[in-house]
Amino acid sequence: SQQGEEDPQALSIQEGENATMNCSYKTSINNLQWYRQNSGRGLVHLILIRSNEREKHSGRLRVTLDTSKKSSSLLITASRAADTASYFCATDQGAQKLVFGQGTRLTINP
Amino acid sequence: DAGVIQSPRHEVTEMGQEVTLRCKPISGHDYLFWYRQTMMRGLELLIYFNNNVPIDDSGMPEDRFSAKMPNASFSTLKIQPSEPRDSAVYFCASAWSPAPNGIRETQYFGPGTRLLVL
After folding, report:
1. Going by DSSP bridges, is the β-strand pair A104-109/A55-58 parallel, antiparallel, or unpaired?
2. Which residues in chain B are closer than 8 Å to A98, comparing Cβ atoms?
């Protein structure tokens, strides 16, 4: 079964706006990762946040992690048309494997 | 580096036929993962290898599925016989552990094989 649950399932915003996606999980984790998937392509790693970190930045991306609530958020600032993709959170629970959520489909309208 | 290479990119076959999917991981990576993605079930881990040895195959749906990794640069996922419900996109991913028992972090995905079983 999928561990991470993304919210919302789909998000449509105007170019230039910020996009926020959320992920909830159920068990303790070593780290949480976010991946992007463009239509018809494989997943691409975006950012990793460890269980002892609360916030991390990478370019226009900002990830937060709240282990007490077992949740994470991905913020994309100043969105661009090229950000249109599906975004997945993945939890590393140990045993060297990731469990992916169902993803959020993000559409950036020009 | 060319990244993870998968072949074929598309496969259309008839029910009952054998299907073989191939993967070449990134050179130097010691972990290899096979995933299946469908609209209904999302991205599921089927099996993963470490140093060519299968570690966890609990996600393999049934005996019709088998995976091998004869060497560090090649892996196959075989479905025999195939069924329409096997239709999905199959991804291979590889990763690298920085040290023995080290935490493996980023996974690098191939472009996937889109399988359609008629």
Report:
1. unpaired
2. 45, 107
How far apart are the C-alpha atoms of A82 and A93, rounded to whole Å? 31
B100: cis peptide before it, omega within 30°?
no
pLDDT score recorded for residue A4: 65
In the numeric block, which tokens belong to residue B41? 């079930």
Is residue B82 helix, strand or coil? coil
CB A2 within 8 A of CB A51: no
A108 within 8 A of A81, measured Cβ to Cβ: yes
- pLDDT tens digits for range A29-81: 888 999 999 998 999 999 999 999 999 999 999 999 999 999 999 999 999 99
Which residues in chain A have Cβ-Cβ distances shorter than 8 Å to B105?
31, 33, 48, 92
Q: What is the pLDDT of residues B76-116, one digit of tens each?
A: 999 999 999 999 999 999 998 776 555 557 899 999 999 99
On average, the pLDDT of chain A sits at 91
Could you tell me if B19 and B111 are in contact, meaning their C-beta atoms sit under 8 angstroms apart? no
Whose CA is closest to A5, among A107, A102, A105? A102
Interface test with B, best of A32, A33, A43, A89 (most B CBs within 10 A): A43
Backbone phi, then psi, for B101, in 5-degree steps?
Answer: 60, 15
